[in-house]
């Protein structure tokens, strides 16, 4: 399960917890009434049925809201069920009336602020009116022997506080979830854009290097075919030029591919730092003050690119540290971030597999995995001097 799905599940659990709290209040109220000999079994049975249907309906409403929809019909049905349960069981806030607050906390999600305030005010009025109608059965009346005016005032105050507090708290969680979803989508889009730009750059370089030579080869080949029947010597000369152009094009192509593979380390480090910071990941770079040994820079440049791509695609990091050091015996690249990868290092895709092959070709090794403190560390180590250098 990736981070965005975990965030969605956590948000859903927080929203559903309001329903669980409702049942906790109901159970405590029923136990209190039973202990005092005031529990009406037939009223409790009438209230449990719509309350159970309301509980079954709420997760469907929450799922729709997290999908950026507002299921108006389901919200209306849930309101009827909540009000029915409250009236049947006793709508004071310390009993079945709490179900109205649970409905309000869900019904106002993904709605404009003014609409949310109107629904909150309407719920407050309905809750206070229902509590006033059944005031003789109110726990405040039974336990504290309050008058009608005192019961209405106390319910108005308590329902007012709940109607003002519950909608913003749940709306805050949905807002945080929305931000997380947007950040995740922006990070993936940024990574895809960076990869697409790199492909376009490579394609442009290839076109500039060998495109005109291939065009010349096509023209001269066609000319040689035409001259083959009338002037064999001229056709042979054209084909000799075609051969020379072909060799030159092949040489340029190899140089372009070699240059693409053997990246410039300084330029690559600056590039990935810019990409990370654009994605909201703070990046610190620690490079040696001396020039790296011959052959190490291209290998580490490629490793830096793959490591940072891994950070962007497979972690939720907010910090990344790139460190390069070397001694007379070995050189090491270490990329550390504070977002543990979603997959194990052995299953991080072809990028790290290719990096491991490159390091193995020069006698090096790749180590990647979670570290202490919730960090993920990738280390590329090569022994010095490199073979063949």
CA gyration radius, whole angstroms? 35 Å
Uncertain ranges: 342-347
Structural class: alpha+beta
Q: Estimate the helix proportion, in percent.
A: 55-70%
DSSP strand count: 5
H-E string? HHHHHHHHHEHEEHEE
| Major beta sheet summary | 5 strands, mixed
Distance between the termini: 45 Å
Instruction: Tell me, rounded to a whole number, the average pLDDT.
Output: 80
Question: Assembly type of the shown chains?
Answer: single chain
Using the alpha-carbon principal axes, give the shape.
elongated
Number of helices: 11
Strand numbers in spatial order across the main sheet: 1-2-3-5-4
Tell me what portion of residues adopts beta-strand conformation: 5-15%
Pfam families: HisKA_3
Transmembrane segments: 12-34, 40-58, 70-87, 118-136, 142-165
Keywords: Kinase, Membrane, Transferase, Transmembrane, Transmembrane helix, Two-component regulatory system
InterPro entries: HATPase_C_sf (IPR036890), Sensor_HK_TwoCompSys (IPR050482), Sig_transdc_His_kin_sub3_dim/P (IPR011712)
Task: Walk me through what this model shows.
The protein is α+β, with helices and mostly antiparallel strands. It has 11 helices and 5 strands, in the order H-H-H-H-H-H-H-H-H-E-H-E-E-H-E-E. Strands 1-2-3-5-4 form a 5-stranded mixed beta sheet, with helices on one face. Helix 1 runs antiparallel to helix 2 and helix 4 runs antiparallel to helix 5. It is elongated and about 115 Å long. The two termini are 45 Å apart.
């Amino acid at each position: 399960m990736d981070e965005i799905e975990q965030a969605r599940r956590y948000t859903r659990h927080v929203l559903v917890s309001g329903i669980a709290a409702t049942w906790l209040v109901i159970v405590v109220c029923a136990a209190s009434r039973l202990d005092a000999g005031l529990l009406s079994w037939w009223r409790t049975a009438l209230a449990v049925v719509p309350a159970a249907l309301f509980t079954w309906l709420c997760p469907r409403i929450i799922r729709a809201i997290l999908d950026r929809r507002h299921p108006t019909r389901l919200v209306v049905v849930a309101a009827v069920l909540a009000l029915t349960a409250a009236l049947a069981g006793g709508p004071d806030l310390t009993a079945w009336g709490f179900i109205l607050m649970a409905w309000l906390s869900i019904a106002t999600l993904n709605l404009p602020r003014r609409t949310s305030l109107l629904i909150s005010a309407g719920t407050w009025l309905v809750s206070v009116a229902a509590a006033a109608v059944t005031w003789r059965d109110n726990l405040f009346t039974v336990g504290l022997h309050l008058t009608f005016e005192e019961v209405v005032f106390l319910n108005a105050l308590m329902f007012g506080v709940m109607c003002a507090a519950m909608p913003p708290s749940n709306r805050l969680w949905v807002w945080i979830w929305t931000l997380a979803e947007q950040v995740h989508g922006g990070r993936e889009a940024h990574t895809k854009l960076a990869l697409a730009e790199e492909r376009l750059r490579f394609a442009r370089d290839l076109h500039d290097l060998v495109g005109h030579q291939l065009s010349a080869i096509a023209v001269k080949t066609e000319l040689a075919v035409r001259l083959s029947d009338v002037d064999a010597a001229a056709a042979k000369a054209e084909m000799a030029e075609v051969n020379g152009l072909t060799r030159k094009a092949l040489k340029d192509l190899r140089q372009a591919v070699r240059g693409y593979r053997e990246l410039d380390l300084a330029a690559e480090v600056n590039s990935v730092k810019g990409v990370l910071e654009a994605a909201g990941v703070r990046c610190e770079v620690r490079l040696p003050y001396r020039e790296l040994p011959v052959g190490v820079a291209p290998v580490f440049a490629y490793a830096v690119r793959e490591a940072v791509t891994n950070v962007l695609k497979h972690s939720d990091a907010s910090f990344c540290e790139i460190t390069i050091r070397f001694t007379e015996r070995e050189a090491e690249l270490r990329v550390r971030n504070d977002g543990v990868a979603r997959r194990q290092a052995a299953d991080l895709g072809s990028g790290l597999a290719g990096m491991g092959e490159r390091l193995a070709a020069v006698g090096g090794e790749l180590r990647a995995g979670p570290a202490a403190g919730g960090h993920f560390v990738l280390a590329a180590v090569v022994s010095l001097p490199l073979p063949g250098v």
